[in-house]
Design goal:
The protein has a two-stranded antiparallel ribbon. By secondary structure, the protein is mainly alpha-helical. Helix 3 (48-66) runs antiparallel to helix 5 (85-118), helix 5 (85-118) packs antiparallel against helix 9 and helix 6 (127-150) packs across helix 9 (225-253). It has 2 domains: 2-269, no CATH class; 272-349. The longest helix is centred in the first third of the chain and has 34 residues, at 85-118. 72% of the residues lie in helices and 1% in strands.
């Protein structure tokens, strides 16, 4: 395994140099072109760019590290190496994380140094815990994205799975959260519905909310109860998702077959789950969202038609054919029915 780890590290030296240079350039230029001082006592922490770079790295690197599973010419070669699949998965993870950490660290502290040179603030100590928390969040996100991507048999399917699972939990929380009211966590301590915290439930929310939370501490702006509660919620969800992602990644490592490369992605974690869940939830919340923007009933009808049509198109993409299986039609019909039932319940329950 040591030889495999060394080989993998050498193989990634060029990507490491590229991503490190990218992080340095982006994080170095950004604090030079923005206004650091917002007023007499407030500052721009410039955490936005390092956060963007970190999120980008945690998305691109898992795709790069595990795309070999989708290539019919290389998957047999990689699987024939005298290393178990779990060990090989661990090697790919470790080297991918090293690339993320090195690139992010260089960009992050360069950004901090430039901000420190351009502005004086007594709250700069908060950059240290921000760095630590963001690294922990990055480790979790990297594992989750690696697992989701490897559930596909084609690269484009894997990317779709990443995007799909990123947004699915906020949709569920937005719907069911409207039935749950929590007291004392509003901006002024008032009661709010759990749905108002759905923006903290994206798979990237731990990284983004960390930057927002520590930005307020660094600049001394102060923050509302909702932000602190949302930040805590995002971290809890990130930890749970990370534990599940890493466990499942290694559990499935020995189950994946080389002959599945470039075949239709039939995993439970892919189209089979994403299409019906999205169809049901988008139908369930669509009337409330669209109704707030457009009052016309025709717009709502068009919206419902587009959702159902999009579901059909995704099933065609999933099967690579216009001939769908009976399971697909039943699943689509059931998701449409569930979506309208949930819509009916929501409209009759929530004013």
């Amino acid at each position: 395994m040591k030889k495999a780890l060394l080989y993998e590290f050498k193989r990634n030296l060029l990507p490491l140099g590229f991503f490190a240079a990218m992080a340095v350039v982006l994080c170095g230029i950004f604090p030079l072109i923005v206004d650091i001082e917002r007023g007499n006592y407030t500052y721009n922490s410039c955490l936005g760019m390092p956060t963007f770079v970190l999120a980008l790295l945690c998305t691109v690197l898992p795709i790069m590290q595990f795309s070999y599973r989708m290539q019919t010419r290389s998957v047999d070669l990689w699987y024939s190496l005298p290393v178990s699949r779990k060990q090989f998965t661990l090697v790919r993870l470790l080297v991918g994380l090293i690339v993320v950490f090195v690139a992010y660290t260089l960009g992050y502290w360069l950004c901090v140094a430039i901000v420190a040179a351009r502005a004086e603030s007594p709250e700069f100590i908060w950059y240290l815990p921000m760095y630590a928390v963001s690294l922990v969040a990055a480790i979790g996100l990297f594992g989750v994205n690696s697992f989701l991507f490897t559930r596909a048999n084609r690269v484009l399917d894997g990317i779709f799975f990443l995007v799909g699972w990123t947004c699915i939990l906020p949709l569920v929380v937005y719907y069911f959260g409207q039935f749950i009211v929590i007291s004392g966590i509003g901006s002024r301590g008032e009661a709010i519905s759990l749905a108002e915290l759905n923006s903290f439930t994206f798979s990237y929310s731990a990284i983004v909310s960390s930057a927002t939370f520590f930005d307020h501490l660094i600049t001394g702006d102060g923050f509302e109860n909702t932000l602190s509660v949302g930040f805590t919620l995002a971290l809890v969800i990130a930890v749970l998702e990370a534990v599940a992602g890493y466990i499942l990644l290694f559990v499935y490592a020995d189950r994946d077959k080389a002959e599945n490369a470039d075949q239709p992605s039939a995993s439970f974690w892919g189209y089979k789950t994403l299409i019906p869940v999205y169809t049901a939830m988008l139908l369930a919340v669509g009337d409330r969202v669209i109704g707030f923007i457009f009052g016309s009933s025709w717009v709502r009808i068009i919206y419902y038609a587009v959702i159902v049509l999009a579901a059909f198109v995704l099933y065609f993409v999933y099967r690579r054919s216009f001939r769908l299986k009976k399971y697909d039609l039943i699943s689509l019909a059931a998701s449409v029915a569930v979506g309208f039932i949930l819509l009916f319940v929501l409209e009759r329950t929530i004013i």
